[in-house]
Amino acid sequence: MRAAQARGRAMLRDWLWGPMSSLGLGVAAATALLDQVHKAWMLYVYDIGAKGVVTITPFFDLVLVWNQGISYGLLPQESALGRFGLIVFAFAASLALAVWLARVTTPLGAVSIGLIIGGAIGNVIDRIAYGAVADFFSLHVFGMQWYVFNIADAAIVAGVAGLLYESLFRGHKKAGKPSKM
């Protein structure tokens, strides 16, 4: 019985922990912490809510927008059940990403997955604390306005870009012998 329990724990550990898990989870923790510190500073020290739109450059403003959807305002959820669904989805996605992280063997893959997990957790903390996600960065040029976003959103996009880069340019080893077909 004890041997079976030990094997079960070892299987679970192997499922959730791999050679790059420390790096990826460290990046996730740093990302979520940076995101939350920045949000707290913008909300309570800088008091962006009282300032309205703050123009930084001709193409970049600071503004407070409460996002009730996922990254970049997608799938807005105004009900408590909808918010709960987004929280559960973010936790499930983070767990799935942690399982993927346990199988990653490159630093780029680990950092990329860590950025995505950290961004998801940073936004979940907002959703739990405020009922919506605080977004601040507004980019616009030539009359085109992008979504207002935050550090967590930027981390998620950077993580996805890193995974795409690795998949397209670094993930495949060249074959030693070409096919004769």
User: Largest sheet at a glance?
Assistant: 4 strands, antiparallel
Number of strands: 4
Mean pLDDT: 87
Shape: globular
Total number of helices: 6
* Class of secondary structure makeup: alpha+beta
How many domain modules?
A: 1
List the uncertain runs. Answer: none
Distance between the termini: 54 Å
- Approximately how much helix is present in the residues? 55-70%
Could you give the order of strands across the largest sheet?
1-2-3-4
Which key features would you list for this structure?
single chain, 181 residues, alpha+beta, 4-stranded antiparallel beta sheet, 6 helices, 4 strands
Outline of this structure?
α4 packs antiparallel against α5. The mean pLDDT is 87.
Please give a structural write-up.
The chain is of the alpha+beta class and about 180 residues long. Helix content is about 60%, strand content about 15%. The chain has one domain (about 20-165). Strands 1-2-3-4 form a four-stranded antiparallel β-sheet. Helix 2 runs parallel beside helix 5, helix 4 runs antiparallel to helix 5 (about 105-130) and helix 5 runs antiparallel to helix 6. The longest helix is centred in the first third of the chain and has 25 residues, at about 20-45. The protein is globular, with a radius of gyration of 20 Å.
Task: Note the topology.
Elements: H1 2-16, H2 21-45, H3 48-51, E1 54-57, E2 60-67, H4 80-101, H5 107-130, E3 133-141, E4 144-145, H6 151-170
Antiparallel strand pairs: 1-2, 2-3, 3-4
